[in-house]
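Journal club prep — side note

Before the paper discussion, L.F. wants everyone to see what a predicted structure for a comparable chain looks like in C-alpha cell form. Sequence:
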Amino acid sequence: MENALVERLHNKPGKSYLVLDGGMGTSLGLMGLNEFDAWSAPRRLDEPNIRSKVKKVHMDFLESGVDIITTNTYDSQFEAIAGEQTFKKSQWVFDNIDLANEAIDAYLSKLPSNCKSIRPLLAMSVGSFATVITGRAETANREQNSDTDCRRREGYGFDASEIRSYFAARLSNDILRYAGNSNVSVLAIETVGDLLEVQVICGVLQSKAELLNKARLSTWVTLTCPTEKYVDTGASISSCIEELAKCSQVTALGINCTEPHLITPIILSIKEVLKLCCAEDKLIVVYPNSGEIYLSRALKEGETDHWKMQSMYKDWNFLDASKEWIDNGANIIGGCCRITADNIAELARFKLTEDLTLQLHKQLFDKWVQGKTEGHVTNFTTKEVMGVSDNPHKDGTSPTNNPSTLPHFKPGIAYFYPSLKIHKLRWEDLKPGVEPPVRLITALQDGISKRSDIYIAKNYLGPLEKAFCGDLLTDSTDAL
C-alpha cells in the first residue's frame, strides 16, 4: 500500500520531519466562539458563522506552513442523534472533510502561479471513546471531580463491545470510502488513554485492512498520558505501544494532549519498545498541549477560565521544545489544546530555513568538489574554503572528498547576500510550503558559503562563477 506519510517524509529536503497543525477548539475560541459552540461546530457547518470560522482556522494553519491539517471531526457527536440515522451521522464527517479540502484549495489558489507547491496532507481526526463519557475530559492533565473521573479504570469502566461500537461507527465503510476518495491520507485516532481501547482500535483497523489499503489510508494512534510511564487509565505506555507496534495498519504512533515536559522521555520509551518489537519503521508523532490544566468541573469563586496556567510553563517555548523532540526522534510535530497557528508558524519557519540551508550547503559543496576534480581549483584551496577532505580512501586511491566535521565548516544561518545576484531573494518570496527554484536559494551567514562567494568574486569573477554555479545563476551576463 502507498503510504503518504512515509513518502512525504522521505521527499522532504533537509531534516526529516513534518509539521502538523494545532488546536482547533482553541483557535475557534480565539475567534469568539464559546466552549459549547466550539465543540459542537463539527455538526453545525450549515450555520454560516460556524462554517466560516472553521474554514478560517484551517486557512490560518495552512498559511503558517504546515505539511498536514486535520479535519474538525474529533468530536463528531454521533450520539447526539438518536436511532439509526447513519447517513446523517456520516454526513457530518463528509461535510468537514469537504470544508478542509475547500480550505486547502483556497490556500493553494492564493499562491503565485510560478510557485511550486505540494498539496498539504489531510488527516481525518477520530477522537477517543472518552469523548462520549458524560462529565469527563479526555486530556490527561485535567482537574476533575473524583466521583466522575474514570482514571485508573480499565476501559473507562466500559466493556470492549461498547468501545468497539464507538469506533465501528466512526470508521464505517462509507466514511472510509468517502475519505479515500476525498484526498484524506491519514486517519488520526487521538487522545487515547486506555489499553483496552488501544486493543479495540487495533482490532477494528485489522478488520478494515482491505478497505483501508484500497482507500490508501494510513493511520496514526496517539495516547494521552498523565506521567511519563502511564496512560490515562493506568496501563503502562509500553504495553500500549507494544499493541500498536504489532498492528500492521498503524503507520505512526505517539502522544497528544499531554504536558510538554513528558514528551521527550515518552519518545525515548517509544523508541525502546519499537526496537524490541522490530517495528522501528513506524513513525513517531507528537502534538502536546501547552501544559495548562483543564478544569473539567464547575469553576470556583475567583476562577474565570477553564484553563489554568502552571508556573512551570510560564516561560515555556514551543519552538525550543519542538527542536528537542525532533532531536530525540519525533517525525511529525504539531500542537493540541492551546497551541495556535502562531506557535506552529515558528516551527514551520524553522523547518523552511533549515531545509534551504542544507540544500544550499550541498549545492555549493558538490560544485566545489566538481571544480577540484576537474582541476579548476587546487586541493589546498578547496580544503581551506569549503572543508573538502583530501584524505585518501582506505585503499589509498583518490581522496574521499568528504565534508569536514569542524564547526567552522558547518552550514550557518540563512541570510541574504546582495553582492551576488544569484542570492537576491526577498523574504516575502519564501512562501510557507513552497520550494523556491534552486538558483534563488539564499547564502549563509559567515561559514563556508560566504567564503565561497568571496573567493569566487575575488579570484575568478564570471568564468569561475559559470563553471561552479551555472545552475544557480539567474543569467550569465550580470550576475556580479
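L.F.'s comment for the group: The longest strand covers residues 184-192. Keep this in mind when we get to the figures.
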